[in-house]
Amino acid sequence: MTTPKQIVLAFGTRPEATKMAPVYRALAAQPGLRPLILSTGQQRQQLDGALAAFGLTPDQDLQVMTERQTLADLTGRIVPQAGKKLREMGADMVLVHGDTSTTFCVALSAFYEGVPVGHVEAGLRSGDLAEPFPEEANRRLTGVLSTLDFAPTVGAADNLRREGKAERGLFVTGQTAVDAVRMVAGRVPLRAGWQARLDAGQQLVTITMHRRENLPVMPDMARALADVARAHPELHFVYPVHLNPAVRDAVTPALGDLPNVELTDPLDYHDMAPLMAASRLLATDSGGLQEEGAALGVPVAVLRNVTERPEGLAAGVLKLAGNDEAQVRATLLELLGSPETLERMRRSVNPYGDGQAAGRIAQAVAWHFGLAERPQNWGTQRPQAALGSQVP
Ligand code: UD1
């Protein structure tokens, strides 16, 4: 028997772990491949929570996180250490995800080591290096180094074609976030306290906000959110606050003392997925929540000026709310004041996948090593109904 190919999944933040968990499972089920996890530990506590939610344990852990780390600090620690570990692990291929510092730095390390890189969630582009910062640069740079690119949508694959990427390494797979949300939503109950609120006729709104480029205006955005909460005492707003101390300092003054705003620690996926599914609206600057909202059929107000996820805008489930205080306030008040608009957004088709993305990725990796047929692309000609939110 030939030895299985060692496929190292490298990640370091919570969303990467969530979206790579289905890929790990699919690789483990693919004959001839052996998945291993290299954690950079970029986000110590948040990553550990996400790993635990999916029952994953890193095989190696670089433990790079420090308090208030700069991007240069992170880069300087990950690049040399990741290369050394990839060598020790006997990596035949490394898979990275999306656009974090971990993604780009591990891809660069692998390139230096001569290990081929597969990029999951490849091809997303906002067209603006300043927004999201530094993620737009991270994903473009990773695209320069990758051998296989797993684009979640046809549009993302087209972005890569425009940048000259060859057809041979390009796969349209769907978003693994859809796979992940399907593994959990509807199977795990909503926290009892939130369920009690729904039972009493209250509705929930989920907020998240953590982007670096939003930090300078985050106190203003928090003030806008506070005004929206004051205008809607019948709604209960749940905001799991990122552990970045700069985020906590920015949002606590405006939002810390309102009776209908619950600031919590970051939630693990088994609490977050049912919360999103039960929400009337998500207000967020996150990337992943845009896809999760679309997959669940829950409207999303995007607290950014541009998004690299235009399919959700076209489908109608996303609405850009910007990051300007007045615009955020006006957009949210308008959405929450119009049940017809929210209902229309909820009925949008999910443009991000059919829940089978991870299987296609595992098959494509096996194909690369001559162990399987090339997988069929997932295409937007087969749009998927959203799972159906659990909003009463
Ligand atoms: C990173 C990603 C971003 C992703 C986000 C998800 C980059 C450049 N950005 O941004 O794309 O959306 O993660 O969370 O990689 N901290 C803790 N404990 C934790 C996590 C963070 O204390 O578990 C603190 C640390 O002090 C750290 C700070 O938060 O210095 C910021 O975290 P970091 O991973 O550097 O960047 P993010 O802004 O979270």
TrEMBL record:
<protein>
    <recommendedName>
        <fullName>UDP-N-acetylglucosamine 2-epimerase (non-hydrolyzing)</fullName>
        <ecNumber>5.1.3.14</ecNumber>
    </recommendedName>
</protein>
<feature type="domain" description="UDP-N-acetylglucosamine 2-epimerase">
    <location>
        <begin position="26"/>
        <end position="365"/>
    </location>
</feature>
<dbReference type="InterPro" id="IPR029767">
    <property type="entry name" value="WecB-like"/>
</dbReference>
<dbReference type="InterPro" id="IPR003331">
    <property type="entry name" value="UDP_GlcNAc_Epimerase_2_dom"/>
</dbReference>
<comment type="similarity">
    <text>Belongs to the UDP-N-acetylglucosamine 2-epimerase family.</text>
</comment>
<keyword id="KW-0413">Isomerase</keyword>
<dbReference type="GO" id="GO:0008761">
    <property type="term" value="F:UDP-N-acetylglucosamine 2-epimerase activity"/>
</dbReference>
<dbReference type="Pfam" id="PF02350">
    <property type="entry name" value="Epimerase_2"/>
</dbReference>
